[in-house]
């Protein structure tokens, strides 16, 4: 669930709250995730117009391998996958 509207501009901010089937919440913002508070990453999302639609590319840069592994262990991949599935649902509804 997008809790705060994203600012669609360079340097904009956002906040996502993902809930799993058991009701556990995983919160992420433009600078950190609650799974590893104080550890930040840079995430760049690019939308590119292509024939027949839009290409979405996301790149995450971590401060260290340990941060990457820690965020992965905290469930970041699960949250990112859920975000992409929700985005795909929304795109399908609009299409």
Name its key features.
29% helix, single chain, Alpha-D-Glucose-1,6-Bisphosphate, Chain A, domain 4, alpha+beta, 95 residues, two-stranded antiparallel sheet, 3-stranded antiparallel beta sheet
Structural commentary:
Helix content is 29%, strand content 35%. It contains two helices and five strands. It has helices at 65-73, 76-94, and strands at residues 2-4, 15-19, 25-29, 41-50, 53-62. A hairpin with a 2-residue loop joins β4 (41-50) and β5 (53-62). The longest helix has 19 residues, at 76-94. The two termini are 20 Å apart. The mean pLDDT is 75. A three-stranded antiparallel β-sheet has the order 1-2-3, with helices on one face. Strands 4-5 form a two-stranded antiparallel ribbon. The protein has a single domain, classed as START domain (Alpha-D-Glucose-1,6-Bisphosphate, Chain A, domain 4, 2-Layer Sandwich), CATH 3.30.530.20. The chain has 95 residues and is α+β, with helices and mostly antiparallel strands.
């Amino acid at each position: 669930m997008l809790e705060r509207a994203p600012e669609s501009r360079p340097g904009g901010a956002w906040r996502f709250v993902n809930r799993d089937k058991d009701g556990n919440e995983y919160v992420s913002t433009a600078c950190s995730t609650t799974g590893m508070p104080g550890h930040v990453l840079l995430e760049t999302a690019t939308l590119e117009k292509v024939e027949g639609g839009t290409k979405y590319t996301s790149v995450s840069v971590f401060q260290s391998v340990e941060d990457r592994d820690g965020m992965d262990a905290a469930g970041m991949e699960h949250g990112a996958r859920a975000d992409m599935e929700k985005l795909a649902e929304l795109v399908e509804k609009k299409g």
